TrEMBL record:
It catalyses: (R)-pantoate + beta-alanine + ATP = (R)-pantothenate + AMP + diphosphate + H(+). It comes from the Bacteria. The gene is panC. It is found in: Cytoplasm. This is Pantothenate synthetase. The keyword Nucleotide-binding applies. The active site is at H41.
């Protein structure tokens, strides 16, 4: 029999719920999401279940990480079906606050992160990581989970959250999980729902070009040349690339030539009205 999760609407209820679990000696995992759940989110739940005794998933479309010209109003909101999916996996609690709960009247504090937040997404969405860091900080301080799960598809976001947690000495381990993909390689994303049937077929070119670029770099092609070729291939397929860049996978700084540092290739590109992001290790 499937038991519905406890539905929490306020920070005080989130804090009390986690405190109750901790008082019983239970470990707690948090899955922060904006809802419109897919198999990538569910993989985070499954991995959290292996690691902790209790799970709280959060569903909140965070207005602070959307610019006025972006898709805040159109972003899919499917709370009822999301909760059903989480219940089927045995998630014990769901925190789904209203915007006024997270940002009450007079709210005046934000969290700003440098380091891995500089460049890439910030070059095109300068507001984004302040919004992400602020809401994730609020969730972690509100719930004080032992671990919090994030997917590697949003790789820069994962590193930004890790930096924030380390800098603020928050007692939560940030766990990253490999990107979950469709059979044709496209990374799962709630925004994939925006794609038309034709665009969805074209979208598979994004991970393919990413792999081709990584292969070229591994074989000794100059990174700048390989990335330029990759961007041209995306444009030829109908994308409008924001970036395709090689970075240090631990800091996201530009790599040092002829070094043995770990590397990550990251891409963001528009296909019609949909912005897709992806990344792979090199």
């Amino acid at each position: 029999m499937i038991h519905p999760p406890i539905l929490l609407r306020t920070i005080s209820d989130l804090r009390a719920n986690t405190a109750s679990w901790h008082s019983e000696g239970l470990t707690v995992g948090m899955i922060p999401t904006m809802g419109a759940l897919h198999d990538g989110h569910l993989a985070l739940v499954t991995e959290a279940r292996r690691r902790v005794d209790r799970i709280v998933a959060t569903i909140f479309v965070n207005p602070a990480q959307f610019a006025p010209t972006e898709d805040f109003g159109a972003y899919p909101r499917t709370e009822a079906s999301d909760v059903e999916m989480l219940a089927a996996l045995g998630v014990e609690a769901v925190f789904a606050p209203a915007a006024r709960e997270m940002y009450p009247e007079g709210h005046a504090t934000t969290i700003s992160v440098a380091g891995p937040a500089l460049g890439l997404e910030t070059d095109f969405r300068p507001h984004f990581f302040t919004g992400v860091a602020t809401v994730v900080g609020k969730l972690l301080i509100g719930g004080f989970p032992d671990i919090a799960m994030f997917g590697e598809k949003d790789y820069q976001q994962l590193l930004v959250v890790r930096q924030m947690v380390a800098d603020l000495h928050l007692p939560t381990e940030i766990v990253g999980l490999p990107t979950v993909r469709e059979a044709d390689g496209l990374a799962l994303s709630s925004r994939n729902a925006y794609l038309s049937a034709e665009e969805r077929r074209t979208a598979a070119r994004l991970p393919a070009v990413l792999q081709q670029t990584a292969t070229a770099i591994r074989s000794g092609t100059d990174a700048a040349e390989a990335c330029a070729t990759g961007r041209a291939a995306l444009e030829a397929a109908g994308f409008r690339p924001d970036y395709l860049e090689l970075r240090n996978s631990e800091t996201l700084a530009a790599p040092i030539p002829c070094s043995s540092e770990p590397l990550r290739l990251l891409v963001a590109a528009w296909l019609g009205k949909t912005r897709l992001i992806d990344n792979i290790a090199v």
